[in-house]
């Protein structure tokens, strides 16, 4: 979480469903629903960190693992949006 609080440019991917993001998103986050991540793999770049967020951190943990399995640098935002 410390890195997320810095001013560094970063890729935050909000994987919540459409109805969930209607309540708000983190500034600068990109919305890619969890089920569509495989369809968006071509948009991810190697050697760049991605911070994956969902409502509570459970779904984002799964997506983080999926991205890591495909050799991407990915981090789960523990606690998800509920932590904010």
UniProtKB/TrEMBL annotation:
Lineage: superkingdom: Bacteria
Pfam family, one: Rhodanese
Domain Rhodanese span(s) in chain numbering: 6-84
UniProt-listed InterPro entries: GlpE_sulfurtransferase, Rhodanese-like_dom, Rhodanese-like_dom_sf
PANTHER family in the cross-refs: FAD-DEPENDENT OXIDOREDUCTASE, SULFURTRANSFERASE YTWF-RELATED
Protein name in UniProt: Rhodanese-like domain-containing protein
């Amino acid at each position: 979480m410390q890195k997320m609080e810095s001013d560094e440019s970063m890729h935050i991917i909000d994987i919540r469903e459409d109805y969930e993001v209607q309540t708000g998103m983190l500034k600068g986050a990109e919305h890619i629903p969890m089920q569509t991540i495989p369809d968006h793999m071509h948009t991810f770049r190697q050697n760049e960190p991605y911070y994956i967020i969902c409502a509570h951190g459970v779904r984002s943990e799964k997506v983080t693992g999926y991205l890591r399995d495909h050799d991407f640098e990915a981090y789960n935002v523990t606690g998800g949006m509920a932590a904010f």
